[in-house]
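Internal tracking record. Fields below are filled automatically when a chain is submitted to the structure queue. Please do not edit lines marked as system-generated. If the sequence contains nonstandard residues, flag them in the REMARKS field before resubmitting.
Queue: standard
Priority: normal
Entity type: single polypeptide chain
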Amino acid sequence: MQNNDILAIACILIGIILSIFGLYAISGAGYIRPLPWIKQVLAAISFLSILRGILFIPELMIVLGFLDVSLPVPSRYIVFSIGILLVGLLYLVGTIGGWRSFPSK
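SYSTEM-GENERATED OUTPUT FOLLOWS
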């Protein structure tokens, strides 16, 4: 398997995962019927997104030269990290706001 094949498979899998995240967001907003484990999944998406987004702090420190590492960090990684942090915070706000209205099972 070539690198291009692996990259294509990885992109397809990421697209599927992000589509599932989107379906849970739409379900949590009440536009479609509640999906299974909606409370747990939305909380997990929030947690993982925020956790990934917090990486902008060490990335910024590397770009600014406060941390010395062997591999440089492209500036676009900081933008991505801040974006995913904002997405995680939005998921968290929506999850907290709709927690009582979500079905328990």
